[in-house]
Design brief:
single chain; about 750 residues; alpha/beta; 12-stranded mixed sheet
């Protein structure tokens, strides 16, 4: 054996020995994955607080019909006073981790001395003395304060205005022919337990009690932020976090508002988000006056909030700039929770089928973008895990990734597993053990809680024919189609789930039991899957199938009733814009905008209020969007500049006009120039036959014999496979033409008169 070959074997072997024999080395390798541990944690829950208490799903009218009584709150909240907390949605959620210090606002106010929430200590000469406990804060409230900040010359960040000399790095701006310092009056405090910020141009010599600003243009921007969160957290909020990308608009005199309650990395309770935004705007109007109009802006989850608040709180926002949008979060979960089921199938269950070692082939079934060149971040420590286990247990992973593995990995357990939270270290171990994490339990008042103590789920894949379109197109064989659908399985019930196995993220020093797919929480084929050849030979009697999920019908109905599903019925101007990131396997895929377009057309019969803009990165037409919307809102007429369009990454116009997004996705015979330049992908459910609107939780089922007669399989003659179809789909297959069987009618939602 030559020396190079010997070294190539010894180096990995040395790493194997280190990994398998020293937990400290393994932990160090994974520390980059861990957030900074908090200084303080939530130490206890309120007496009698029981997250497992059974409750029925929400069964009331649609959220848009349930108004918030602003007369019940005292506005304005003056400096030194504490903002109100809304209890109209029921009991407040606990635990609730405070982030006031993380937001440079100091400790929260003491609201109890029973040890509930986070500890608050006396401060001596500005230094927190942990030996002198003052009490605890369970609701994280703060008094309102007003400060001045100045913009730093040449940078898009702000610093506190000094008490003495004018700072040398102060930026100046031209205001109607005169040069003025770029200084903002910034109001901060808590409203609805979340930290809010209001900012506008002001004279730094004016007293902080002065609410008048000669530089305000009477227009308000409400900034919404994204991320994925499951509640139980106040979240950070600062001027920079909402104003850093809106410097141009601040310089033009726009006022700016935002709240950590409108950041979806903190929660995806859209009713709570809407009420919080309404309260913050009420504070703005009471302090500074009614704006001529209010424009929303924000990306990803920030775009979701805009669409749903426009639907659920008509009049709160007058126009929207959703960036990197989705129509809503909950309907993304319909297919996003399929992601790891499919990835596990391709990586493990069907690893003997070499065609699935090519990521682009997976894309034929999954619909999402796939690349053999782009990698996902889990792959590095997965390789280490294989070495730590001598490679005997874990299969090798092929080169590349799909959008699912690169962008959605880790979100399935965060959303779905009641025992896992990447922020569990913000709570004392006893609190974390008692708590139920997951999106479902964060919205227990919506989805309801069963007698087993766990919130109901909406995910359902019974009857879903994964890869159906690929089968019809001849891209996969009938045997591959059957093997996939027999083994795809589903997720275990919440009560049967176990903690994730994500190495240091879940407190493990050892890599030996890593599961990047959460496969220990999947419902799999009993025993072991039968090989592909059994399906190729049509040996029906040898086939075994993995159980599928059944969504809770009342919980699905509650998702609609509570306004968490975007129905499309909004009539305000919208400029939906994004960078085209599909080829980067980014989660912000372009077809999400097309889904919104289809929902708006279905609800209103037209899309006259919606403009779609898309560009290559880094060109960003957001400033142009503000200009167009200003004309639209000021004149009351859609301006000629409000046209569908697309640009290159340098801002060169590719095409604009009525037909640039034409395509088969909306039934057009031709493909528009923008759609051709920026081609969209699809979701696994779209490949399975579900419509691109994407809001179908629970399909109607039809027997497979009927599906054959009705042409579900295109030109394929599936009659010889009838017995196999019945074996793999014993309850029938999805008939998407009949819509969502769990969706309440408009009359049941209160959105149409009962005849």
């Amino acid at each position: 054996m030559d020396q190079a070959r010997t070294l190539s074997l010894l180096v990995p072997l040395a790493l194997v020995v280190a990994l398998s024999g020293c937990g400290e080395i393994q932990a160090r390798l994974g520390r980059h994955l861990l957030p900074e541990p908090p200084e303080l944690v939530v130490e206890a829950l309120p007496p009698g607080y029981d997250p497992a208490a059974p409750r029925a799903p929400y069964g009331g009218p649609h959220a848009s019909l349930v108004s918030l009584d602003l007369a019940a709150f005292d506005f304005p909240v003056l400096p030194g006073q504490v903002g109100p907390v809304d209890t109209s949605l029921g009991p407040l959620q606990y635990p609730f981790a405070c982030n006031t210090e993380d937001s440079d606002l100091g400790q929260p106010l003491v609201d109890n001395r029973e040890g509930i929430g986070m500890p608050v200590f006396e401060e001596l000469d500005g230094v927190k003395d942990k030996r002198r406990l003052l009490g605890h804060s369970k609701d994280c409230l703060l008094p309102t304060r007003v400060d001045y900040y100045y913009k730093v010359e040449g940078r898009d960040d702000f610093r506190p205005w000094p008490d003495e000399d004018i700072p040398e790095d102060l930026a100046w701006l031209d205001w109607r022919g005169q040069s003025i310092p770029f200084v903002l009056r910034v109001e901060r405090g808590t409203i609805n337990r979340f930290i809010y910020v209001i900012a506008m141009l002001a004279d730094p010599e004016a007293p902080v009690t002065d609410t008048h600003s000669p530089y305000w243009n009477k227009k308000l921007i409400y900034h919404f932020k994204g991320g994925v969160g499951i509640g139980k957290r106040q979240g950070r909020m600062s001027l920079g976090s909402i104003g850093g990308r809106l410097v141009t608009q601040l310089a033009q005199g726009y006022a700016l508002a935002g709240s950590s309650g409108n950041v979806t990395s903190n929660h995806y309770n859209m009713w709570l988000a809407a009420n919080t935004a309404e309260l913050v705007k009420a504070q703005f109007e009471a302090r500074y006056g009614r704006p001529d109009y209010t424009v929303g802006i924000g990306g990803s989850g920030g775009a979701v909030q805009q669409y749903l608040i426009a639907q659920n709180k008509p009049g709160l926002l007058d126009a929207l700039i959703p960036q990197y949008s989705y129509p809503d979060m909950i309907t993304q979960s319909i297919w996003a929770l399929d992601c790891e089921l499919l990835e596990y199938y391709f990586d493990v269950t069907a690893r003997d089928n070499q065609r699935w070692q090519v990521q682009e082939n997976r894309g034929l079934v999954m619909g999402v973008a796939a690349s053999s060149e782009v990698e996902h971040e889990f792959k590095k420590y997965y390789r280490w895990a294989r070495m730590a286990g001598l490679g005997l247990r874990l299969p090798g992973l092929p080169p590349g990734a799909t959008e699912c593995s690169k962008s959605w990995r880790g979100l399935a357990p965060l959303t779905n597993n009641p025992h896992y939270s990447h922020r569990a270290h913000h709570y004392a171990p006893a609190v974390a053990r008692q708590e139920r994490f997951s999106h479902w339990h964060d919205l227990a008042h919506v989805y309801g809680v069963g007698e087993d103590g766990y919130a109901h789920r909406t995910h359902d894949n019974t009857g879903v024919q994964y890869g159906l379109d690929a089968l019809v197109r001849g891209q996969i064989s009938p045997a591959e189609f059957f093997h996939l659908n027999a083994n795809i399985g589903s997720w275990k019930a919440p009560k049967d789930m176990a903690q994730e196995k994500l190495w240091v993220l879940t407190g493990d020093d050892s890599l030996a039991d890593v599961s990047i797919w959460s496969d220990h929480n999947m419902q799999k084929t009993p025993g072991s899957p039968v090989p592909l050849r059994v399906f190729a030979r049509n040996q029906v009697d040898l086939v075994k199938t993995a159980p599928r999920s059944r969504g809770h019908l009342a919980a699905i109905a509650a998702a609609y009733r509570s306004g968490h599903v975007f129905l499309g019925d909004i009539d305000i101007p919208v400029i939906d814009l994004r960078h085209y990131l599909d080829n980067e396997l980014d989660m912000h895929h372009s077809y999400a905008t097309l889904s919104s377009w289809l929902r708006i057309r279905a609800a209103r019969g037209n899309t006259d209020n919606l403009v779609i803009w898309q560009s290559g990165k880094p060109y960003n037409p957001s400033d142009k969007a503000f200009e167009v919307l200003d004309e639209w809102l000021t004149t009351g007429q859609r301006p000629a500049s409000a046209r569908d369009a697309c640009w290159t990454d340098t801002g060169e116009l590719i095409a604009e006009g009525e037909h640039v997004w034409n395509g088969a996705w909306r039934g057009d015979a031709s493909t528009g120039a923008c759609l051709a330049h920026y081609p969209p992908y699809r979701s696994p459910r779209n490949v399975a036959g579900a419509p691109l609107t994407g809001e179908l939780f629970k399909c109607a089922l039809v027997p497979v014999s009927e599906a054959i007669i009705r042409g579900f399989y295109g030109g394929l003659d599936m009659r010889p496979h009838l017995a196999m179809l019945e074996k793999v789909f014993p309850e029938g297959v999805c008939d998407y033409s009949r819509g969502d069987v769990a969706r309440p009618s408009d009359a049941e939602l209160g959105l149409a008169p009962v005849l």
